[in-house]
Specification:
Length: 396
């Protein structure tokens, strides 16, 4: 039977890891896959995480199942992290968190929930978006549509976005990146979020806010502005939260789907459906990452260590954005790349074209996604002059 099965290409972003590792160039620079790197190019285990794991090793008493919604202690700490400790939504007890294998698992829960419980609803994603959005929603059998997000001049196309949102059929689902838009790095201003909220309300849309980079843009609360605006002003909102990046626990697969309903009763109904979706996909989520997050956030001391480390990561990335533009100044390219300092999060749509990306890889061992997306965290003071020189050579 298997003789008829065709081979398909692998994930283009993850494929860059292998290509980079194979490259013998001693000066090679990895600006591909979206994992944080420190100044030494390492994706470290955070100190707070190591301490939490030591506590877990000592105190953990069972490896039994944690249930389809995951560990209630994780839900208890992640809800205020995402929605804010003083959230009126939490006070009204109309938000539920279902722990999932990463933010990706939460997206799939949301997709299956929509497919089964809101039949016939289409889903709208930004163009461009994280490629897995397309795969996940299509795999769930939902009709997928795109709204404009970045224009031909590589700038946020907010007018295009808003006028597209105003045309979406009533009741459809709209995916919004909470912050640190992947792949572009272009985020909405507070005024723009307000306009999106009004449109979502007018069209009676269901926002699915994908929140994979909380703390990587401007701060834990600052980055939550859009998600909280939706949560506090609408009856129904879905939020997919990931702890992969902000706790650096990528491989522990830690995230959740937050479902907000009009009232506690309806939230419990939705929650009961989400338990089925989780059960039919993987039964129970993995526990370890959620336990780490709980140990950290529940301890004032560990939480303070974690916040400092996250601040350090965010400041490093935002500092590199400015250093990158400065490094291009001697080539007269600081104007052309000025937007890189304004973008937020791990990623930047640099504006480099696929042919530039190919030359950077082949001639300089510098790896980016072909769309021109760079992982800014892969830059370092040591490689910036080399990267700037290479970019100047390929764009001229
Ligand atoms: N959503 C976006 C936009 C992402 O970039 C990621 C990152 O990988 C995720 C969701 C999910 O991440 P994970 O499943 O690793 O938590
Ligand atoms: O966009 C990125 O680079 C990250 C990591 O299939 C990632 O979100 C990339 C591809 C993938 C899973 C995670």
């Amino acid at each position: 039977m298997f003789e008829q099965i065709e081979r398909v290409p692998g994930d283009a972003i993850l494929g860059l890891i292998e290509a980079f590792n194979k490259d013998p160039n001693p000066q090679k620079v990895d600006l591909g896959v979206g994992v944080y790197r420190d100044a030494q190019g390492v994706t470290p285990i955070m100190r707070a995480v190591k301490k939490a794991e030591a506590l877990l090793l000592k105190n953990e008493t069972t490896k039994s199942y944690i249930g389809s919604h995951g560990d209630p202690r994780y839900a208890k700490v992640v809800l205020p992290l995402v929605l804010g400790a003083e959230s009126p939504v939490l006070a009204a007890d109309r938000a539920s968190a279902t722990q999932s294998p990463g933010g990706t698992g939460a997206l799939r829960l949301a997709a299956d929930f929509v497919k089964t419980n809101l039949p016939g609803k289409g889903i709208w994603v930004s163009d461009p978006t994280w490629p897995n959005h397309l795969g996940i929603f299509q795999a769930a059998g939902i009709e997928l549509h795109k709204y404009p997000y970045v224009d031909a001049d590589n700038r946020l196309d907010f007018d295009g976005m808003l006028s597209a949102l105003k045309q979406i059929p009533h009741g459809d689902v709209v995916v919004l990146h909470a912050c640190c838009h992947n792949p572009s790095g272009f985020d909405l201003s507070r005024e723009q979020w307000q306009q999106v909220l009004e449109t979502v309300r007018e069209r009676d849309l269901l926002p699915l806010v994908d929140f994979a980079y909380q703390g990587f843009g401007d701060g834990l609360d600052e980055d939550a502005y859009g998600a909280r605006l939706m949560a506090e002003n609408l009856d129904e909102v879905l939020i997919t939260s990931s702890c992969s990046k902000n706790f650096g626990i990528y491989r522990e697969r830690t995230g959740c789907l937050i479902a907000i309903a009009k009232n506690h009763e309806q939230m419990q109904n939705v929650r009961s459906q989400l338990a089925i979706v989780a059960r039919e996909n993987y039964s129970n989520p993995p526990a370890h990452g959620g336990s780490i997050v709980y140990e950290i956030l529940e301890s004032a001391e560990l939480a303070a260590v974690w916040r400092d480390e996250l601040t350090e990561m965010r400041n490093r990335i935002n500092g590199l954005r400015r250093e990158f533009v400065d490094a291009l100044a001697p080539y007269g390219l600081d104007g052309q790349f000025a937007h890189v300092a304004e973008q937020r999060g791990m990623f930047s749509y640099t504006g480099l074209k696929p042919e530039h990306v190919d030359r950077l890889r082949d001639e300089y061992g510098i790896y980016l996604v072909r769309s021109g997306r760079a992982n800014v965290a892969g830059l370092a003071s040591e490689n910036l002059p080399y990267v700037a020189k290479a970019i100047a050579a390929v764009v001229k």
